Amino acid sequence: MATGGDIQVLVVGGGAGGLSLAAFLQRAGLDPVVVERTDALDPPGTVELRPEAVRLLTRLGVGREVREAGAAVTTWTRRRPDGTVAERLDADREVGLLAIEYADLLGALRTVVADGSVHRGVRLRSLDARRGSVAVEFANGVREQFDAVVGADGPRSRTRELLGGPDPVFCGTTSIALPLPDDVDLDGAGEVWTTDGAVFRAVPTGDGVAAWLTVPTTVPDQRAPDADALAELCPAIEWLLPAAVDAADAGELWWADDFRVPSATWGDGRVALLGDAGHARHRLTGAGATLAIEDAAVLADELGDSADPPAARIADYAARRRSRLDDPAGDTDPAAPLAGVESELASRHPSIPARRGAHLASAFGEGSRGFAGEQFEE
Known about the structure:
Helix content is 29%, strand content 25%. The chain is built from 12 helices and 19 strands. The strands form 4 sheets. The protein has a 7-stranded mixed sheet. A 6-stranded mixed sheet has the order 8-2-1-12-19-18. Strands 3-7-4 form a 3-stranded antiparallel sheet. Helix 2 (51-59) packs across helix 3. The protein is globular, with a radius of gyration of 21 Å. Residues 1-5, 328-345, 348-354 and 367-378 have low confidence and may be disordered.
C-alpha cells in the first residue's frame, strides 16, 4: 500500500453498504468514520444475498455468522393467486440466494467494524469539496475536514442531494412486511404476481418466514387503517396472504414506499456514492444489498491501495462498477423464468421492473432446473 492509509474517509450511512465499506477500509489500513442519521439498531425487513455477496462477507470474516442467521434458498416458485405452481427454479448449487433479516446482517457487520467508528443520530447538513479536501458540516453544527466522503445513505440520499444528483423517483408501489403464523412450512421461496400489479412474496429466513406484499399506489405515504382495508389491497391472492392478514395489526406493520434513482450517479471529485444512494432500483429486483456490498469491496480496494489522489481513485471505482450496474442480472431473456408475467406487468405498470426472472436465474445458475421456464402443476 502506498499512501492509502493516510486518507481520512467519512462514510454517510450505517446500513449494509456503509458498514461493509467501513470493514473493508479497515482491512486496508484506513480508519473511516461512519455517521448514521437514525438511532435504530434493529431495522425491519429481509434481504436476499446472492452468492457473490456471501463470498465478500466471508472475506470480512462474517460469512459463517451470516449463513447461520439466514436461510439458504434453493427453490423458488412463481405461483398463481390460488397457490398452484406456474414456474419453478431449483438451484444447481448449494445456495441460490441467502435470505436474512436485515437486522441480522447489520449485526454481523457491526462485529467486524472497529468500536467507536459508527456514530448514530448524526445528520449531514452540508459539504464543500472545492479546496482539495471535503469540508463537512453536520446538523449539530460540528465541522470536519475529510479527504473523501462516501454517501451510502439510501435512495433518499442527502449526500446525493448535496452533489446536485437526481431526486429519487417514486415507483408507484408500496411494500408491506407481513407476519406469517409460526406453523407455516414453506418449501423454498415463492412469489405471486397478479395482473393488476400486486406481488406477494414469502421467503424462509433463519427465524421462520418473511412475507412482503407490494401493491400499486398513486402517491407515497399511504397506509391501510385496519385489517379489513389491508385485506382489500389484494383480495385475489389466496396463497398464504389471508393468513398473514389475519395475523397482522395494520397499525404496527412496516410500510416502505418504493423509490428508484433515475440514473446511476457515482459521485463527483472526492465524493462517491454507494449502493442505493447512487443507483437505487425497485425493491423487487432483489439485488440492492448484493450490489451495495459489491460497491463497498471495489471502492475500498481503490481507496486503500493507490497513490493516486482520492478523486482519481473514486473515478476508477466508478469505471469498474458502471458495467455491473448497467446490467446487474443480465438482459431479460424471453425464455427465462418469470419473464412472461414480468413483461405483462411491466406493460401495465412500467415502474415494476422486468428483470426479476433474470436476477433469479442468474443467482440460481444457468444450469438450474426450470431455467427454460418449464411449467409445473401441483
